[in-house]
Write a structure and sequence with these properties.
Strand content: 15-25%
Helix content: 25-40%
Number of strands: 9
Largest sheet: 5 strands, antiparallel
Length: 228
């Protein structure tokens, strides 16, 4: 896949390299004499505008971010936008404790941000877990794969029992995908953040510490438990 030539011409862009992406696709480009990042959005228009509004919301929280330069514009059935390059290197995978501390720092930076609306199409984890559609799906496949369905059903019921007494905690803006490749580090200092596909209002305790025990331990050490 390559960007449409008419878009490159209209925005005065020259491709440098394809940067990839799981759903959204990215290319590093020359925008005149400056380097920038061109994005092809995977989602529909509400997702595009939600994420761009998130960038505006967190603009003044002290991090380098992929701010919008141009767009969004729809072309060939997809949305396109041009963004600033976020300088730095991905965070080291092996330094999970530092990432846990940075995650706690991010929650503190974003503590007082006004909450945006719910993310379009997003369902909370407890809502998904309680969905009777999961039971119907297992019922539909039980005759063909009884051993697999028995195992899945056991895990589903165990998870439901484990969270039965949980109540939603206070919501804050969370990043939702605080992985090494989405952080940017310069000289050992965390300075930038990428990828806001999962950013939304949520309970940080339910959504943040899922990227490994070491980072979770450090995050919990500097993030006090709440009554919830």
């Amino acid at each position: 896949m390559t960007p449409p030539p008419e878009l490159l011409d209209a925005w005065n862009l020259r491709p440098q390299a394809e940067l990839g992406g799981r759903l959204n696709r990215h290319w590093q480009v020359w925008n005149g004499q400056e380097s920038a990042v061109l994005r092809r959005w995977h989602g529909p228009e509400p997702e595009v505008h939600y994420e761009l509004n998130v960038l505006k919301l967190i603009a003044d929280t002290g991090l380098n971010l992929p701010f919008l330069r141009r767009g969004p514009q729809v072309l060939d059935g997809a949305w396109w936008s041009l963004h600033d390059v976020v300088p730095g290197d991905p965070a080291p995978h092996e330094d999970a404790h530092t990432r846990g501390r940075w995650l706690a720092e991010l929650h503190e930076r974003w503590r007082e941000l006004p909450l945006p609306a719910a993310r379009p199409g997003w369902r909370g984890a407890l809502e998904v877990l309680a969905d009777p559609g999961a039971d119907a799906l297992l019922d539909a496949h039980e005759a063909a794969r009884p051993a697999d369905v028995r195992l899945y059903r056991w895990h589903l019921h165990r998870a439901r029992r484990a969270v039965a007494a949980l109540r939603p905690g206070p919501h804050r803006v969370i990043h939702g995908d605080f992985t090494p490749w989405n952080l940017r580090v310069q000289g050992g200092v965390w300075t930038g953040l990428l990828d806001f596909e999962f950013t939304r209002p949520a309970d940080p305790w339910r959504t943040s510490p899922w990227r490994g025990a070491a980072s979770t331990t450090t995050w919990c050490a500097v993030t006090p438990l709440t009554p919830h």
